[in-house]
Amino acid sequence: MTNKVKASPEGQKIIETARTEKGRGTGWAKEDCHQALTDASLYQLQNVILPALEISVKDNPNPTLNLKKLKAIIDKNCIKPPINEYSKSTLIFFTDDSQEKILTIINQLVSKNYTDLHLNDFYKFFDKYKLRLDRITDRNWRDFLSGKLIDEDIFTAFCSILGISWQEVIAQETPFEYKDSTNTTLLVEVLNTFNHKEQKDLVCSNLALSHAPKAFLVINPCSYRRTWMLRRIEYEIKTFGKEVQPEDFFSKSQYTSLSIKDLKSRFNQKYPDQSLNEVLKSKYIFLIINVDNYNFNNFKDLINEFWKPILARVNPEKPGKILMFMISSDQGNDWQTEWKNCDMLKDAIAELTPANSFKAQDLIEILPRIALKFDITLTEDPATLSQSILEKGQGRTEEIIKALYQQFNCKHQDLIRQWQTYPPR
Fold this sequence. Notes:
By secondary structure, the protein is α/β, with parallel strands linked by helices. 52% of the residues lie in helices and 9% in strands. It has a five-stranded parallel β-sheet with strand order 6-7-8-5-9. Helix 14 links the parallel strand 7 (283-290) and strand 8 (322-328). The longest helix is centred in the first third of the chain and has 19 residues, at 34-52. Residues 81-90 and 174-180 have low confidence and may be disordered. Residues 193-327 form the Inactive STAND domain. This is Inactive STAND domain-containing protein.
């Protein structure tokens, strides 16, 4: 359940000044607040709902939405899993009344043989039909203005549309644990672009040379570094305009390995017959396999009985490709040395060695990029700030990422979800 917060007495004055500056008769009053509710709903849509649905407006601010898919999403009216435990609106996003209105609109468009809708046109419906997202209500607006307790993510949305900082107006006796999930998303986006040049170049070279790529072996005891590498490779593929669909083939525990028989069964269930090539019409598939529990014979069987038959099913004329990443936490298995002495495995596998550890110069390079992404000014010069973060990190990737999250006001709770597994669970 989301935390409840309120404005301080001094914060209420700041809020009232910002509201008054909107002008009379403009929909920002205590009672007549239609414009405030519209803007707050759009804020939640842009900063919570679209990221959760993986609809990016970074490179194209006005993407085309497929009406059938949009109808299915709104008809379901929920997103699982939520972005974080504080964002209730990632579970249910439209109010019942607004859900009914937008479904009626979409059905009318479909009946007129429309198949697509631009995002900007979708935005216009919010003002025209007074569409509201979950908990964006007259009562919450009045409670916000009156200094009463409301859900913290709605508090943030109202502050944002008034152009004020929630830090300036919140009552200190209500601990504000919410950190904007958008900030976390932005931070991860920047980190995804960084480092791992050698590894992403090896993957790209492999993909360019053959429609049947090698399997990629990733050995690293640090789950954060393994995840970072895979995120970086995914980002690189996306820069080519390709969509990536990661699939983890772990057992019920992410730390154990499925048998070859179970792997084949799960893959064939997920991609029966020609459905594999249907997906490869528009996407790259990443298969993530944990190989920690395999011996040398299991390792060979993974290539011969699982990977090679999959490649044989792939139509080379499809624009997408399928990649397999074999993940190991470096437990000293016999295959770790023996695979390099086996010609069959050497021909079928490319090892992605760990990236170099962070150094001060690396952070000096990345900190300004994060600040620009956040539209903020750094509090210290990058050299001083990088040294401080490295000292907090003590050479550990997890602690360095944690220090970056803290520096840029992102929630530590997202660390495990974002960085300990790939794809995120």
